[in-house]
Amino acid sequence: MAKAKRLVVLVSGSGTNLQALLDAVADAGTEGYGAEIVAVGADREGIEGLARAERAGLPTFVCKVKDYDTREEWDAALAGATAAYEPDLVVSAGFMKIVGKEFLARFGGRFVNTHPALLPSFPGAHGVRDALAYGARVTGCTVHFVDDGVDTGPIIAQGVVEVRDEDDESALHERIKEVERRLLVDVVGRLARNGYRIEGRKVVIQ
Ligand SMILES: Nc1nc2c(c(=O)[nH]1)N[C@@H](CN(C=O)c1ccc(C(=O)N[C@@H](CCC(=O)O)C(=O)O)cc1)CN2
Ligand SMILES: NCC(=O)N[C@@H]1O[C@H](COP(=O)([O-])[O-])[C@@H](O)[C@H]1O
């Protein structure tokens, strides 16, 4: 059996997607799931995502933009802190910072993001709010590889969620997250176990 892949997960908030990955690894075992989480990184302190990692006994690291003179220096520091754990895949699970050249030079093609909208609609930091404001009747979530645009990289999988008349941003986001957590766990496991190739905009999981 192939060696389990090493995952670094990046978070900025409550970390429920991280928890879903932690639970999947715990339930299936590292071999069964095909991957293990080796560290969790964040762009801020005091978040539940980091507390979840600590409760799971995982090493954590924090790289705050304001601790660096330039965004490029922050990006290089984040890349270095992530690389120290020698990940095969990096997962952005609610990580709310755009990464730059250095990070993508090291992790391009193996950096996965989950976004709470059906890309290419509603990219950016407010995907749920923007879909509601537009009057979309269906929205959802997209798991994709990250490139140097904002939410423009090759799509791996998507999940659909209906918008209800009574939805506000919070209610809709919660229903999206229920679908998103299952999708992310499924996609990361399949990438890790089966391997994959990226052919232009298409992702083929082998
Ligand atoms: N180069 C890329 N980096 C990241 C991508 C990406 O597609 N390309 N996806 C994000 C996650 N993301 C949505 O899925 C996202 C996160 C944050 C933002 C944003 O505008 N961030 C601001 C700060 C906002 C804040 O701190 O609250 C910023 O970076 O200055 C847009 C999209 C992961 N990274
Ligand atoms: N554009 C990035 C973005 O909006 N990411 C979103 O943040 C949430 C994090 O939830 P979690 O911290 O509970 O996993 C998720 O819905 C994720 O798609």
Explained architecture:
Residues 5-188 form the Formyl transferase N-terminal domain. This protein is of the alpha/beta class. It has one domain: 3-Layer(aba) Sandwich (Rossmann fold). The protein contains six helices and nine strands. The protein has helices at residues 16-33, 48-55, 71-83, 101-107, 127-134, 169-194; strands at residues 5-11, 35-42, 60-62, 89-92, 111-115, 138-145, 155-162, 196-199, 202-205. It has a seven-stranded mixed β-sheet with strand order 3-2-1-4-5-6-7, sandwiched between helices. Strands 8-9 form a two-stranded antiparallel ribbon. The longest helix is centred in the C-terminal third of the chain and has 26 residues, at 169-194. It is globular and about 45 Å long. The structure holds the ligand Nc1nc2c(c(=O)[nH]1)N[C@@H](CN(C=O)c1ccc(C(=O)N[C@@H](CCC(=O)O)C(=O)O)cc1)CN2 and glycinamide ribonucleotide. Ligand LMY7XDAE binds next to strand 5.
